[in-house]
Write a structure and sequence with these properties.
CATH superfamily of the largest domain: MutL, C-terminal domain, dimerisation subdomain
Strand order of the largest sheet: 5-4-3-6-2-1-7-8
Largest sheet: 8 strands, mixed
Shape: elongated
Number of strands: 24
CATH topology of the largest domain: formyl-coa transferase, domain 3
Number of helices: 19
Number of domains: 3
Length: 598
């Protein structure tokens, strides 16, 4: 007797459903994707009890005839692939959201499925499947000109064991909303409505197909803050194009859940793409902070495999290095073009308008970088060497203030608590964190010097001896050659001790003991296979922090204004090396509101 058995079709369908239909949001995803492939311009989704009791998806797509209804619920029947002239089927020639033809039969095998559709000029027909049992199509009341209406009820009633793995009604409803939002981001030309238990929770009107329409759709979903603090991304290389919008570094989040990535219009969660985003922002954000963005990668379907995952949530690129490099380059180029612009939300928090993260804030236009005069002593060392505090501050004459306040960061008027510079602009004030701002300037200078001929070193009259534990000392000494390129010359000085002979000239009079200890801590977290150049942001950031104008350092008017002018001329100076803003701008109208003048 043979031990090999052929499973019945109903069991096969339920096994397949386990891959395609994980939870109610999986059902919604498959049905909405089908509606989009059918050319729908308006899609209505109605759910009850988080989709467990009912999911209704209605669209105005081209609809199906009676015979097509029957084919639609057969496994591996599809309208989304066609044979070539030689009869072969190209499984990579996918220009739709899907093609496998598993969704409808899989859903029908574990739930009660009612499928009603009508083509223009034809009658409407309904087909039903209950737990895998199919009934022949029947005439149905007209839907209108054309479209499809799919009603799924009692999800997983045929496999009740699956119900215990579902989450709460609220969690399932939120998962459905997230699926719809992701699909809606890629199709701003389509309108979407989500109704939960009789209450409309999401309504997105059709916006159009251009860049402005896409930004409006993102504004509808992510909130006004994102649109005000996003930069446009548009780069192309070797047939691969990446477009979309990315948030400024100072508009960062506590998790990566506000990162939306799409490949040929398909929402994906791909480790390579998320890694590229982290790499692009590594220069600007602390490790536990994440940017907000929506990026769209478009390329020849033959150069990407979208069927490596049953739910098509992951993709595999023919040339992953090309795609990753393009994303990193596009993001860095966009961030560089943003100049020293900081997010508008910082001012809102300062004014007490933000009760929760993501609340609307005052807006601020991006500032042009052209024709910004550089200061007479704009090098970082000029600031780092002010060892004698000023007894008082001679503010610029009135005419100097009038001319400087027309510049983006205005004219310095005071230093508060020997930490913050207060400036006057044409229509408000700016408060600058002098240490955070100068830390970024030193960092940018170090990167520029390193990419040119190396960081210039300054010899110490007497080498400084730094005592470390033996393991830390070995870690630092193992990178001695690479540290010398950054202007830090060290050598062994007995067990667990390091002699510092030269420090980066950009840092001025630096505490070598503290610097080496901090570098030892950084190196302890690095992958030993990575070079310091690959970890440039951590190393240079640590060094820049030690060479910055410290909080508590008194600056005179010339020093403060020189710092402001250098910020205006330096890319990325709107945030420190950890993603925090270096300045806050308050418009005059917002200040007047504080005092009841508006």
């Amino acid at each position: 007797m043979s031990l090999i058995r052929r499973l019945p079709a109903q069991t096969v369908n339920r096994i397949a459903a386990g891959e395609v239909v994980e939870r109610p949001s999986s059902v919604v995803k498959e049905l909405v994707e089908n509606a989009l492939d059918a050319g729908a311009q308006s899609i209505d989704i109605n759910i009850e009890e988080g989709g467990k009791a009912r999911i209704l998806v209605a669209d105005d797509g081209h609809g199906m005839s009676r015979d097509e209804l029957v084919l639609a619920v057969e496994r591996h029947a599809t309208s989304k692939l066609a044979p070539a002239d030689d009869g072969s089927w190209d499984l990579l020639a996918i220009s739709t959201m899907g093609f496998r033809g598993e969704a409808l039969p899989s859903i029908g095998s574990v739930a009660r499925l009612s499928l009603t559709s009508q083509r223009t000029g034809e009658d409407a027909w309904t087909l039903r499947i209950d737990g895998g049992e199919e009934t022949p199509p029947e005439p149905a009341p007209p839907l209108g000109l054309n479209g499809t209406r799919i009603d799924v009820s009692d999800l997983f009633y045929a496999v009740p064991a699956r119900l215990k793995f579902l989450k709460s009604e609220r969690a399932e409803s939120m998962a459905i909303s997230d699926v719809i939002k992701r699909l809606a981001m890629s199709r701003p030309d389509v309108g979407f409505t989500l109704t939960s238990n009789g209450r409309t929770s999401l309504r997105l009107v059709a916006r159009g197909n251009d860049e402005a329409a896409r930004l409006k759709r993102l504004d509808d979903i992510l909130g006004r803050d994102f649109a005000q603090n996003a930069i446009a991304i548009d780069q192309q290389r070797e047939g691969v194009q990446v477009t979309g919008f990315a948030g400024l570094p100072t508009y960062h989040q506590g998790s990566a859940r506000h990162q939306y990535l799409f490949v040929n219009g398909r929402p994906v969660r791909d480790k390579l793409l998320h890694g590229a985003v982290r790499g692009a922002y590594a220069d600007f954000l602390a490790r536990d902070r994440h940017p907000a963005l929506a990026l769209f990668v478009d390329l020849d379907p033959h150069k990407v495999d979208v069927n490596v995952h049953p739910a098509k949530a992951e993709v595999r690129f023919a040339d992953p290095g090309l795609v990753r490099g393009l994303i990193v380059g596009a993001l860095r180029h966009g961030l560089a073009n943003a100049g020293h612009r900081a997010s508008t939300t910082t001012a809102g928090f300062a004014l007490g308008k933000a009760q929760v993260e993501g609340a609307p804030m005052p807006s601020a236009a991006p500032w042009p970088r052209q024709n910004i005069p550089r200061p007479g002593f704009a090098d970082s060392q000029r600031f780092a060497n002010f060892d004698t505090p000023s007894a008082h501050h001679e503010m610029p004459a009135v005419e100097d203030v009038s001319s400087a306040q027309d510049l983006p960061l205005g004219a310095a008027r005071a230093q508060v608590h020997e930490t913050y510079i207060v400036t006057q602009t044409e229509d408000g004030i700016v408060i600058v964190d002098q240490h955070a701002a100068h830390e970024r300037l030193v960092y940018e200078d170090m990167k520029k010097a390193l990419s040119a001929s190396g960081v210039v070193a300054q010899a110490l009259l007497v080498p400084e001896i730094v005592e470390l534990d033996e393991a830390s000392a070995e870690r630092v000494l193992a990178r001695a050659d690479e540290l010398s390129e950054l202007g830090l010359t060290i050598e062994a000085f007995g067990t667990g001790a390091i002699a510092v002979r030269e420090t980066p000239a950009l840092l001025g009079n630096v505490d070598a003991q503290r610097l080496v200890c901090d570098l030892a801590d950084d190196l302890a977290e690095f992958d030993t296979a990575l070079s310091l150049k690959e970890r440039l942001e951590e190393v240079c950031s640590t060094m820049a922090c030690h060479g910055s104008v410290r909080a508590g350092r008194r600056l005179n008017a010339d020093e403060m204004n020189a710092l402001l002018r250098q910020m205006e001329a330096t890319p990325h100076s709107g945030q420190c090396n950890h993603g925090r803003p270096t300045y806050v701008e308050l418009k005059l109208k917002d200040i007047e509101k504080l005092f009841g003048r508006r």
